[in-house]
Specification:
Blueprint lengths: L2 E2 L15 E2 L2 H4 L30 H14 L6 E2 L1 H17 L10 H8 L3 E10 L4 H9 L2 H7 L6 E9 L5 E11 L5
Parallel strand pairs: 3-5
Antiparallel strand pairs: 1-2, 4-6, 5-6
Length: about 190
């Protein structure tokens, strides 16, 4: 745990406040999908998706990706219902076919069109074998092509899904779609 202390002020009468440990959630103002402060409850980005009832915390994912983008001088991304459904469709198709491939639910351009999302730009990251959101994010961040997608300057919206497949060697399949609406057609 990182310790941050407040030092003595030169203007005070030498009163010194003791160091206080801050959690990662406090340092990021709760933007990382943190628990509601109950002791022992782990942040949602560390919860395993390798269970039948697991559901990815999309708000935490948007916060993580937005923070990463902000740290790289880019704008935030927000969740979009159509992109969420498209990501879910792709993750489910990979899980049901036990295939880690972009075309599991059909070619990407066709899937975006079929989703009803009128995209000016759209990119996709997939993953398999990552059990937590933190692992999936780290894997994408550490891959040049996936990092480029997360740092695409034109995207403003996103959808994400993780699907558990107990009989697969991967156990969890991920899909992340980042896009921007085509405002010219709107």
């Amino acid at each position: 745990m990182l310790l941050l202390g407040a030092g003595a002020s030169l203007l005070s009468d030498a009163a010194v406040r003791p160091a206080r440990a801050l959690s990662l959630c406090e340092m990021t103002f709760g933007l990382l999908g943190c628990s509601d402060g109950k002791p022992g409850e782990q942040p949602s980005f560390y919860k395993s998706m390798a269970t039948a009832d697991a559901k990815v915390d999309a708000k935490a994912a948007a916060s993580m990706i937005s923070g990463y983008r902000r740290n790289n001088g880019l704008g935030l991304v927000t969740l979009d219902d159509k992109l969420m459904r498209a990501a879910e469709e792709q993750a489910r198709a990979m899980a049901s076919k036990n295939k880690f491939e972009h075309d599991a639910a059909g070619p990407f351009a066709q899937r975006i069109k079929r989703s009803g999302y009128d995209a000016k730009v759209a990119v996709e990251n997939i993953g398999a074998g990552y059990h937590t959101l933190a692992e999936a994010f780290s894997g994408w961040r550490d891959s040049p092509r996936h990092r480029a997608n997360m740092l695409h300057s034109g995207v403003t919206k996103m959808g994400i899904a993780a699907v558990y497949s107990p009989n697969s060697k991967y156990k969890v399949f991920w899909a992340l779609i980042l896009a921007a609406p085509d405002d010219r057609r709107g």
